[in-house]
Amino acid sequence: MRYRARRAEFEYDAVRKDARTAYLLWGLTGIIGGHRFYLGDTGRSIAMLFTLGGLGLWTLADLFLIGRRVRAVNGARRAAIMGRHGILEGRVH
């Protein structure tokens, strides 16, 4: 059972997103939605790309929302991986 939990954690570590990377991408490519592509928000990324970040407004708003979005993406990915391995809230089945 511990092997299954370790394997799930290893799989999660491989797909986990980093807030520092997202902020760096925001700084370099924020106006065209590079940070959104990184986080898997393809639809919003394309919208930012064609509107130049909502004329800069979405880009500015994302400065304050990136941390929360990274946590949400990581939480969803972790839950999916743990569920696939049969692990619920720290309990091994």
Give a brief outline of the structure.
The chain is mainly alpha-helical and 93 residues long. The protein has one domain (2-92).
Please provide a written account of the structure.
By secondary structure, this protein is mostly helical. It has one domain. Helix content is 77%, strand content 4%. It contains 5 helices and 2 strands, in the order αααααββ. It has helices spanning 2-15, 19-29, 34-38, 42-55, 57-84, and strands at 87-88, 91-92. The chain has a two-stranded antiparallel sheet with strand order 1-2. The termini are close together. The mean pLDDT is 92. This is Molecular chaperone DnaJ.
Share of helix among residues? over 70%
Give the percentage of residues in beta strands.
Answer: under 5%
Summarize the helix and strand pattern as letters.
Answer: HHHHHEE
Main-sheet strand order equals 1-2
Give the total of beta strands.
2
Give the integer mean of the pLDDT values.
92
> Shape from CA axes?
elongated
Features:
about 90 residues; mainly alpha; two-stranded antiparallel sheet; 2 strands
Topology:
Blueprint: H1 2-15, H2 19-29, H3 34-38, H4 42-55, H5 57-84, E1 87-88, E2 91-92
Antiparallel strand pairs: 1-2
Helix pairs in contact: 1-5, 2-5, 4-5
